[in-house]
Amino acid sequence: MKNSRYAILVIVILAAVITPTPDVFNLMLFAVPMTLLFFLGIFASYLLVLKRENRRFPWKVFFIWLAVVVAILGSFIALAVLKYGYHFVRHWPFLGR
Fold first, then answer.
1. Phi-psi bin for 72: left (phi > 0), alpha (psi -120 to 50), beta?
2. Domain check: are 6 and 33 in the same one?
3. pLDDT above 90 (res 85)
4. How do residues 5-26 score in pLDDT, each as one tens digit?
């Protein structure tokens, strides 16, 4: 985790080389999933180390933080729907005016 900023830099540079166009949107389409997979791999390795050391993962704290993040995202979606007149549609980006 200490050197994750270098990994993110390499991921963004790799995504910039892979993307066929120079715009930021396509770069982020490649970089964000690769970064999420990087951190998912770190989390999985952390769980593996805990299992090898016969320690337990603090699932209660994890689910509390997950509930906080889901509540914040839900409040942003509710704000967009109720105040700014967005509505759900069946295709991407799933919220339209």
1. alpha
2. yes
3. no
4. 999 999 999 999 988 888 888 8
